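Tutorial, part two.
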Amino acid sequence: MRKVIVAAVLASLGLLIGGFLIYGVLQLRRPARTTLTQPLYPGVTYQRVFWDDAEPVLLHLVKIDTTVAEASFLVTPPDLSGGMEHLAQTTGEFAATHNVQLAINGAFFDPFEANTPWDYYPKSGEPVNVFGINISNRDAYSTDTNWWAAACITGAQLVILQPGCPAGTEQAVSGNLQFLRDGALHPEVAWAQYNVGVHPRTVIATDVTGQIIWLIVVDGRQTDYSTGVSLADLGNYLLAEGVYSALNLDGGGSSTLIHNDNGHIRVLNAPYHTRIPMRQRPVANHLGVFIGQ
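Running the prediction step on this input gives:
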């Protein structure tokens, strides 16, 4: 009996040590906390920005000049086979499936829970619904315009509206707040608790012409790496970068930025799903960008 107990203890200890080693390896895979500017395609630039003030914050920005880049867009098409609007996918799975060069996670969705690293919903392939108005290839499959804002795309032109999108919109993805509007912070940022709290973020933004588009992801909830940012602080930074309008998409553990580099799926940020670094969360829909197709 004593040998059995000792063996069980040693096995448990081995699993614990193995878990710590795996966790340490995953932490090492996170992007360096250094500032970087990297051209990806003509008219498309990736920028990584590190703030180290009171708390560390790591931002990732892809700037797309649609007057130069041959850019077109895709929101995840609906899949009703599970009885809801989508079957969940990670952002990397979406990018690989549709061969988009760039991708971010999209709208808030339901049902969702994240209890432990093995007990969470949805997993890839499980059914979910999105909130707000979402359009894929002119198919407005989700039309809740009660108060949700949306990034509405026709051709390479983007406009952020709250609520709804104009007739003829080709692609749209919904968010909970247009926190930059007409070149200024939206007043709701000052009081909405989720918006002033420090969180990982996913944002789509545009300049005053709608022809320069930013895909923005901020890492967070990772002490001593990146804690996240409030929408007020992020908004003030983006205003200084020339952003005129910005929409807050689903954030938290969903926040993911992907570069599909000739079939090699590169995770440009540090997603943090179920407290595991570099683990992508399966989400309902996504926004993808084709370059030169």
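The longest helix spans residues 2-28. In part three we will examine how such features are distributed along the chain.
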